[in-house]
From TrEMBL:
GO terms for molecular function: guanyl-nucleotide exchange factor activity. One of its GO terms (cellular component) is cytosol. It comes from Xylaria grammica. It is found in: Cytoplasm, Cytosol; Endoplasmic reticulum; Mitochondrion. Its main location: cytoplasm. The keyword Transmembrane helix does not apply. This is UNC-45/Cro1/She4 central domain-containing protein. It comes from the Eukaryota. The keyword Cytoplasm applies. Keywords: Cytoplasm, Endoplasmic reticulum, Mitochondrion.
Length: 564
């Protein structure tokens, strides 16, 4: 019998129709053997020959059309099949499914996928099962959904987190890809191991040196995919050591991976680094994260150290994460006045080589958090934030409009209720320049040239804040300072003669009613001094502004002049 079986495979023709006929006869023999002699060695030989034939691409479609593939799928679904035959069935199914959606559909229709998934518990055929599942599922969503429903996630996670990890290690690339296929399926009870992200990050972190880039990136990327889903975040954070784990694994992704100038691996590494940053931003916004990271904890020390690292992803993530942790005045004051965390941030802004928009946005956003408490404002100003080479330099980045807006927004926060910072922004940049220019001039100029509405509004608000502080009675600002003298106010308005041009934007816009009210209040405050009143009166020379104010005060449109 074995000779005739071999002869049949030797006689497979080049013509696809003839191939299908020959393989159909093989299928008939296989069914007969299975029915009459299921333990026959001839069946093992036939299965081996079929598996070999399936390695040839031209044979794969005929294997499906002949019914031979479905036959071996049915054998695999039978209980008590001997390991040697199971291995050959897996070879046939895996090889026949390579790049063949029609055969994948046949495998799916046969109902054997749950049986294949269950074979992950059988160490003797593990080396077959995992590649076979990959061949069936790659680029084929119906099979991916089916293996998810068959419970592949808990099976694989248990495999790589238990004593059989050594068996699975050579197949780790396939394991990670299979987990990635099912990572975005709708989570269902008992179909996802709750420790999936923790287990995978642990595998990545604990790799021996030198780190295998492919395995590390596969493990980390799948873990981060799961952590991008809210339902896995709480379980992860409830696991002891989770914060330390993700910080150290992210650090390894930036410092310990050598991509050997491989463009594909380098691109994947950048993608994983970006995913780490996004995941840390999400996790650090969770109450469990802050509760497990006191401000004097090793995790916060690690994050603070990242601010000065040369790796941009770590620096950005540190700013986003610490910004989420520091959500109270008490924490912000501690970080500035006890940890001096603002100093490396200001150093980073001072360095013109730091041109990455994402990094600058993260730094400025964190500093905005730190600038909210009144007690921090003068400290941040005195540390140099308002020096010409720091925030004013970023005001000039017209090509990075979001970063420019962030810098203006931070400036406004520093000015609110802080005479010391108002003094800094109004002081001449260079007293020898005639006429002397202040940093406030640069802010007014930005308001005039910007075509971005958010920047226009924020610069106008910052300018208005300066005037509000200058005209606030002593004791009404958090940091008391002597009232400006009439002479100093006169000099201020003389030096900044176009200041009300910026302020008018807040009244003439209609999108933000509260900003209109804010500006009207400051105009009224200014008008209480002769110098401020003169500036307001100059602004009133514009008929459109007067008309808008009259409409706001009376609640009615200004009547148009009668036509003679």
């Amino acid at each position: 019998m074995s000779g005739s079986i071999s002869q049949l495979f030797d006689d497979i023709a080049d013509d696809e129709v003839q191939r299908t006929k020959v393989l159909g006869r093989v299928a008939d023999i296989a069914r007969s053997l299975w029915k009459t002699e299921p333990g026959s060695p001839d069946l093992d030989i036939l299965a081996q020959k079929s598996g070999d034939a399936a390695r040839v691409e031209a044979n794969r479609e005929p294997l499906g059309e002949s019914g031979l593939l479905e036959f071996f799928c049915s054998v695999l679904s039978t209980q008590g099949v001997r390991p040697t035959l199971i291995a050959q069935c897996l070879r046939i199914i895996g090889n026949s499914s390579a790049d063949q959606d029609e055969n994948r559909a046949r495998v799916l229709a046969s109902g054997c996928l749950p049986s294949i998934v269950s074979l992950l518990n059988n160490s003797s055929v593990l080396a077959y099962v995992i590649p076979v599942l990959f061949n069936i599922c790659v680029d084929y969503e119906p099979a991916q959904k089916a293996i998810y429903q068959a419970g592949i996630n808990p099976e694989l996670v248990s495999l790589v987190s238990g004593p059989r990890l050594e068996n699975a290690a050579p197949l780790m690339t396939y394991v990670c890809k299979l987990l990635s296929f099912v990572a975005k399926q709708e989570p269902e009870a008992n179909l996802v191991h709750p420790a999936t992200p923790f287990v995978l990050l642990s595998l990545a972190r604990n790799q021996p040196s030198p780190i295998d880039a492919e395995d590390f990136l596969g493990q980390a990327s799948v873990a981060l995919t799961y952590l991008s889903q809210e339902q896995f975040q709480q379980t992860f954070l409830e696991t002891q050591g989770s914060v330390d784990l993700i910080l150290h694994t992210f650090s390894a992704a930036c410092e310990d991976i050598d991509v050997f100038q491989d463009p594909d691996t380098e691109a994947q590494l950048k993608k994983v680094q970006a995913a780490f940053t996004a995941t840390l931003a999400d996790l650090s916004a969770h109450p469990l994260f802050a509760s497990s990271c006191s401000l004097d904890s090793p995790a916060v020390q690690t994050l603070q150290g990242w601010i000065s690292t040369p790796h941009i992803p770590l620096r950005s993530a540190a700013c986003l994460t610490l910004g989420n942790i520091a959500r109270s005045d008490e924490k912000c004051i501690y970080l500035v006045q006890q940890r001096a965390i603002h100093k490396p941030l200001i150093e980073a802004l001072t360095d013109p080589s730091n041109a990455d928009a994402g990094l600058l946005h993260s730094i400025l956003s964190f500093l905005k958090n730190l600038a909210i408490p009144a007690a921090n404002k003068p400290v941040l100003g005195a540390a140099g934030l308002l020096e010409a080479d720091v925030l004013p330099r970023i005001w000039d980045l017209d090509t990075q409009t979001q970063v420019q807006f962030d810098a203006v927004s931070l400036t406004r926060l520093l000015l609110v209720g802080c005479p010391a910072n108002v003094h800094l922004i109004c002081a001449p940049i260079d007293a020898a320049t005639a006429p002397p220019r202040s940093k406030l001039h640069a802010l007014i100029d930005l308001n005039a040239r910007s075509d971005q509405e958010p920047t226009q509004m924020e610069t106008a608000r910052a300018v208005t804040t300066v005037c509000r502080v200058l005209h606030s009675p002593q004791g009404q600002t958090p940091t008391d300072a002597p009232l400006p003298t009439p002479e100093s106010l006169e000099a201020f308005y003389s030096a900044h003669s176009t200041i009300t041009d910026a302020m008018q934007r807040l009244i003439q816009q209609t999108k933000f009613p509260t900003l209109r009210s804010e500006q009207l209040f400051v105009f009224a405050l200014m008008a209480r001094t002769p110098e401020g009143a003169a500036a307001v009166a100059q602004a009133m020379h514009q008929a459109e502004l007067v008309s808008t104010i009259v409409s706001l005060v009376t609640g009615s449109p200004t009547p148009s002049a009668a036509t003679p």
